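User: Please work through this fold.
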Amino acid sequence: MHAFGVYGHLAGLTEEELRACMALLGGYECEIQDDVLDFVHEGGFVDIDSVLDALPSMLSPAARGVIDIIDRQDWKMLRCTLGRGHLSQAAIALDNALDTAYASEIPRSR
């Protein structure tokens, strides 16, 4: 098992935003389906902070997503949620991560 992992899911991306994200995430495994980009890094530490700093300004307010950053060595997890042009971050207890997985992606009733 790898010591460090980044698991991202971005949706609502335009073609231009998909290209920009692919350039930004050049060292990650990426998969595109329609307007959705999933990306993964497992292995050694990567500079995820520069990615997190860049995303809100390069994506439209319609883009949304979740990025989980897992440090298995220190047993910590950070969940980053992107929506309406803003990125929020919350520490998640790694033992309870599946209980809160993608909670922001659950459709809200109107």
Remarks:
- Residues 4 and 71 are 5 Å apart (CA to CA).
